[in-house]
Amino acid sequence: MIEGFRLLADHIPATAQKRLIEEVLGLTAEAPFFRPTMPGSGKPMSVQMTNLGPLGWVSDISGYRYERLHPETGRPWPSIPQALLELWRNVSGYDADPQACLVNFYSPTSRLGLHVDADETAKDAPVVSVSLGDRALFRLGGQKRSDSTSSFRLASGDVVVLGGQSRHAFHGIDRIYPGTSRLVPGGGRINLTLRRVTAPQERAGTAPDA
Ligand code: SIN
Ligand code: MN
Q: Which ligand has the shortest distance to the CA of 129?
């Protein structure tokens, strides 16, 4: 397994999962799920997305990027819930808070192709990922697309930390196991990924030494 990858199985207790899903779904009234499209082809992804935090990850025909505003409502994303900021502070080992929480919704037939999270300039910050609802088959490879991969199931309440070498490793979701959780009303899986997007000194606007 690639260095820096951590699976914190069953990290979030059932009662906290319930509170978290209620809070996140409540916020989707303000920032509804949208269906992103693939750069270049404009083909719709099978996963629906929204974001929380000052920045949100979006994908459309012109590319992948972080945006301050929801692409459909034109409004800022809601704030990242306190419980997620606390989780980040406890598990990331990073000294600045995340700026984006991507919320992915997987229906029974959704999948997410192998990719690297590469749109952040804070390359040293890990990505912290929370699984809620139906189980999923997660695939993790190395830093080259051709590297061998291993697959394992993620269950509701599991937290994954992509740090170290694994921060720049290929990963994806091969499939969902429908009906394996009752947490998400109507079924499905919700994954929350917390990301630090810009390096902290950029945010502080520190002028470089002359
Ligand atoms: C992602 O890579 O953005 C999501 C991974 C997951 O759904 O577990
Ligand atoms: Mn990813």
A: 1
Q: Report the alpha-carbon distance of residue 8 to residue 10 in Å, rounded.
A: 6
Per-residue pLDDT tens over the stretch 41-68: 999 999 999 999 999 999 999 999 999 9
Q: What is the pLDDT of residues 129-142, one digit of tens each?
A: 999 999 999 999 99
- Ligand 1 atom closest to 115 (CA): 2
Contact at 8 Å (CB) between 200 and 96?
yes
Q: Is the dihedral of CA 88, 90, 93, 97 positive or negative?
A: positive
> At the fourth CATH level, which superfamily is domain 5-198?
Alpha-ketoglutarate-dependent dioxygenase AlkB-like (2.60.120.590)
pLDDT at 1: 86
Give ligand 1 pocket residues (Cβ under 6 A): 102, 104, 112, 129, 131, 138, 154, 171, 173, 191, 193
Task: Please report, for the chain, the start and end positions of each structural domain, with discontinuous segments joined by +.
Answer: 5-198
Residue 65 Cα to ligand 1 midpoint, Å, equals: 16
